[in-house]
Structures are given as C-alpha cells and as structure tokens.
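Friendly challenge for the regulars: who can give me the structure tokens for this chain first? No prize, just bragging rights.
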Amino acid sequence: MASLLIREMLAQDRPRERLVELGADALRNAELIAILLRTGMKGVSAIQIAELLLQKFGSLDSLARASLKELSQVKGIGRDKAIALKSAFTLAQRMAKEMRGEAPMLDTPERIAELLREENRFYEVETFQSVLLNTRRRLIRVEQISQGTLDTILVHPREVFRGAISANAAALIIVHNHPSGDPTPSEADIKATRDLIRAGQLLKIEVLDHVILGRATADRPKDYASLRELGYFYS
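First reply, four minutes later:
Bragging rights claimed.
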C-alpha cells in the first residue's frame, strides 16, 4: 500500500511523463505550468510552484495578464521562468488570432468580442480600437487608436476616421476595454459614441456599434456590452 502511494505521488511530480502517457488534456493546469517551469527549487517541486502561482493570481486569465515583475515575485519564479511563462501566454494569444481566419464577417457584438477578447485581456489601461469593415461587413483591419488610464480614455473623431478613410472602409465598430472587468458603459463612453456616430454620418462611414470588453463573472456571464443593444444608437 505504501509503495502504491509513493508511486502515485511520484507520478504527480512527473507531468511530462503523464502528458506522453495520457495526453495534454488529461493534465491539470498546475501540471501544464510545471512543464513550462521545468524545474523547482530546493525542497519545492515545479508543480508546487505552479500551484503557488495559480493560488496567487487566482485564474489563468490573471496569470496571463501578470507582468514579468509580478511573476518574478513569486517564490521559485526567477527571470527565466517568468520569461518562459510570458512567452507561452503570448503564443496562445497569437494562436487565437491566427485561428480567427481571414476576413471574418463581423455583424454581431458576439463576433467582435470573439475577435478581440484575447488581445484586450492583456491591456492594463483602457485601449481604444477601431474595427474597419467593408461593404459586406467583413474585416479590413483593426486599428489601435489611443490608450488612456485605468478608467479614462480620450479619443477624437479625427483619429478614429483617419484610418477608416485611408482603408476605404464602409463602416466601423468602436471597441475598448474596461480593465476593471465591468463592461457597463460610462457617461463618457455614451457621449463619445454619439459624437462618433454624428461624425460618421457626415463622412458617410457608418458606426455600427461600440463594444466594451470586460470579464465574465458568475453574476454577469457576458464579458462585453454592446451600446447598440443597450439602445444608445439612433435607429
């Protein structure tokens, strides 16, 4: 019985072997992170360090958003391990972009959220983006317009429509994130949206929506808000 327990404990500390034997989907998050860390430290295994990481940051989302400095402050995570983790999460972000395919149709706020969710997850301040579309509502490109503070962003219609005009866009969708996680629009968000709608009408470039990205919670299953859905757009 004792030998069986020892074998089970050893197996938990050998995530590479478990991945080969069972496949990556069978491993816990801590085991997958331990593979990235490669080694532990004196008296502490890589899995135990991985569990400390998950305990400190609370979720993979928060862990992915952590800076190199924040990662390095966890016991057992030095500069090299922090770099390995940051690289892995950045690759995952880029893969998500790649999987979106070329020129997707962006005719719902759900599709906009899917397009930009991973990229915006890493922003620590409000970041304003413009999604430029052709006449068939397919993506031309996404332009980053400006960045603000933790809860304030300043944007001028000139900055938004300059790229749309050069790209010969027929329409655009405004997107920005709320680092707090709550996508509820502020009064400033609503005012900026109405200013941009009016500017778009003058330039014959339709502003289709303003999507604010946040984070889902148990009480708020949607991680985004659409100002069009909320009734802030003119009919």
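The chain has two domains: 2-97, 102-226. The first helix runs from residue 2 to 12. Your move, everyone else.
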